[in-house]
Amino acid sequence: MPLHAKSKEFLDQFAASGMPALGSLPVRETREAFAGIAAFGGTPEVLPKVESRRIPGPAGEIPVRIYTPQGSGPFPALVFFHGGGWVIGSLDTHDSVCRHLAKRAGTVVVSVDYRLAPEHKFPAAPEDCYAATLWVAENAAAIGVDARRLAVGGDSAGGNLAAAVSLMARDRKKPAIAFQMLIYPVTDHSYDTASYRDNADGYLLTKDSMVWFWDHYLRAAGDGAEPYASPLRAQDLKGLPPAMVVTTEFDPLRDEGEAYANRLKQAGVPVKLKRYDGLIHGFFMMTGFFPQALQAVDEAAAEILTLKG
Questions:
Q1: Could you write out the three-class secondary structure of the chain?
Q2: What is the DSSP pairing of strand 62-68 with strand 108-112?
């Protein structure tokens, strides 16, 4: 399909704003520039309770933001990991989508401010995300959550972290995860797919920016072969939780996301795979701009709502 009109509109606005291409500036300046993406989240949904806390982590406290929906618990829980190439992004850049998820899924969303690279390289991020997921399971009653309905999810690098945490929980025998929401996830430290070749430039996320992100994230190139960095390289995907995998047509990461969905299916894991034709990487967090973002939120909400206690 051709580029969707909303994708073109966003890219035109992005170009007119003068915002530099991702990865073209030093880390601090890139983080500051990316923070402006929060404006595309639209008017924040009002929730009964939004709480900032700090929870124990493997290298100190981890900031989290807990979104509680209307109603009486215990609720399902979604532990959410923001995108941003493991280098940029924050609780604030993904505040709007977390609010929508909490309201539309009737779920407590725990958004995790995991350690970022390059100050904290792999495996700091997945270890923080695993620790936060375990904390939610172990403190479920205190935050109004049913630990039997525990999901993980995220977009882009956050999708990578959700897949990694699912692998870690299986390998370490806890906690039990009921669902993984993988939104255009990074699944492989490689740049040789057709989608990388076809979408290398011009659609917000570029091949060069992904090289920049990976180079900041990994201690050494060899880390990219580790399953908790590249879930697609895990030898065995059996026993993982059911998954929803979303990809977009004009995205370097499209093919590796779909390859991961197919490998999950081959391993006997229930998977719902959907490609949004005409769209670009990043649409999911822009709930105030892309109508399809709310559609994807509703599809994730439908999956979360079916989780059985």
A1: CCCCHHHHHHHHHHHHHCCCCCCCCCHHHHHHHHHHHHHHHCCCCCCCEEEEEEECCECECEEEEEEECCCCCCEEEEEEECCCCCCCCCCCCCHHHHHHHHHHHCCEEEEECCCCCCCCCCCHHHHHHHHHHHHHHHCCHHHCEEEEEEEEEEECHHHHHHHHHHHHHHHHCCCCCCEEEEECCCCCCCCCCHHHHHCCCCCCCCHHHHHHHHHHHCCCHHHHHCCCCCHHHCCCCCCCCCEEEEEEEECCCHHHHHHHHHHHHHCCCCEEEEEEEEEECCHHHCCCCCHHHHHHHHHHHHHHHCCCC
A2: antiparallel
Strand 75-81 and strand 243-250: the pairing is: unpaired
Q: What is the pLDDT of residues 224-254, one digit of tens each?
A: 999 999 999 999 999 999 999 999 999 999 9
Q: Which amino acid is at 91?
A: L
Return the sign of the alpha-carbon dihedral for residues 30, 32, 33, 38: positive
- Beta strands 75-81 and 62-68, pairing class: unpaired
Question: Catalytic residues, which ones?
Answer: 156, 251, 281
Buried b (16+ CB within 10 A) or exposed e, 177-194: bbbbbbbbbbbbbbeebe
pLDDT digits (tens, 9 = 90+) for 27-54: 999 999 899 888 999 999 999 999 999 9
Measured in degrees and rounded to the nearest 5, phi and psi for residue 230 equal: -125, 85
- Residues contacting 172, CB < 8 A, separation 6+: 130
Q: Is the pLDDT of residue 309 over 80?
A: no
Both tokens of residue 188? Answer: 């492989």
How far apart, in whole angstroms, are the C-alpha atoms of residue 181 and residue 78? 9
Domain 5-305, CATH? 3.40.50.1820
